[in-house]
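User: My notes are a mess, but here's the protein and inosine's SMILES. Can you give me a structure?
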Amino acid sequence: MDSAASITREDILKQFPIKVELHVHLEGAVRLETILDLGRQKKIDLPAGTVDELKKYVCVYKASDLTKALENFYIFGPTFAGYHEGVYRVAYEFCEDAAKQGVRYSEVRYSPHFLSNSLGVQTYAASTGGSYTPRDVVTSVNQGLADGGKKFGVTVRSILCCVRHHPEWSYLVVELCKEFAAQGVVAMDIAGPEIGSIVTDTDQSLHLAAYKKANTLGVKCIAHAGEVGPAEMVRMSVYDYGARRVGHGYRCEEDEELFQRVVKDGVHFETCPISSLKTGGAPNGLDKHPIVKMAKDGASFSINSDDPTLFDNTLSDDYICALKMGLTKQDIVKSIFNAVKASFASDAEKQQLFAELQAAYGDQ
Ligand SMILES: O=c1[nH]cnc2c1ncn2[C@@H]1O[C@H](CO)[C@@H](O)[C@H]1O
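Assistant: No problem, the inputs look usable. Here's the predicted complex:
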């Protein structure tokens, strides 16, 4: 195996030809070319007219903080949010890009609210008073993923996100998860700024009530937690919200007892190496990266790209980053098997995926 320092994207595609991705945001996985193209068509003001120039405004290269990084969505979101053709195209192209990374099965997440324009409040759309509702958004994404999945030979399911600073949206997210379960919507998540966004007990209780309802209805629950927020967020997500997977989860390790409990309870960590270096999620660099401890302590984790538009990364780059932390090829193969186990694919799909992984990597 080449040393991690010199390994290329092409090497990764050869060494890890089959991948499974569980944590990637649809709004954060839009081609810059598509942003420019749709921007021209819809006459949306963008700060630059070429891909290289646009990167300077859209991508986060230096370590920043999560809340600041998330603001960039408002720069490029208006090109595709708020109308069927934009949302459909992003979902369709997502499938092609996933297939190019060797992804066979993916669960892509998004906020139906942020992509709508009917709510009278600011979303990513250019207008706030249109007629494209969160329900319409889900229909567009489902069509794009179904058509793209078929065309490019990849299975892509979706996860609907509540948004931390919009607790009033959460209940509809539960309803949409239930309504569209047969069209590939597999779970509910909560995303957005983890620190400072929940200010009142009422906000908190709205999210909690939505998660309780989801659990009652049999909607599977996951949550972003411990990305930049404290270990307590992980405790709350797993044991109060009923999340069986945690997005990021790095800071859980600050509470050793909790971390060991969560590992023992089989909770899966959806890690995003490159993102973690840009959002403040992993401030201590590569050698002391929380994923290293996850691997050492036998936690179930997967490797994911999070927001390729924002971080100018591909999934292969995240695999390279994991190798640079000192993870072995074996650790990474195991993480792909664990991703299948933690996925919301059907049992038959999981068997099929395991068979493909065994053919590529041998028995685990
Ligand atoms: O790394 C992240 N942490 C928390 N929230 C995020 C991250 N990346 C994107 N989003 C937020 O999740 C919403 C639904 O997909 C996105 O619109 C964005 O606001």
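The first strand starts at residue 19 and ends at 25.
User: Great, I'll file this with my notes.
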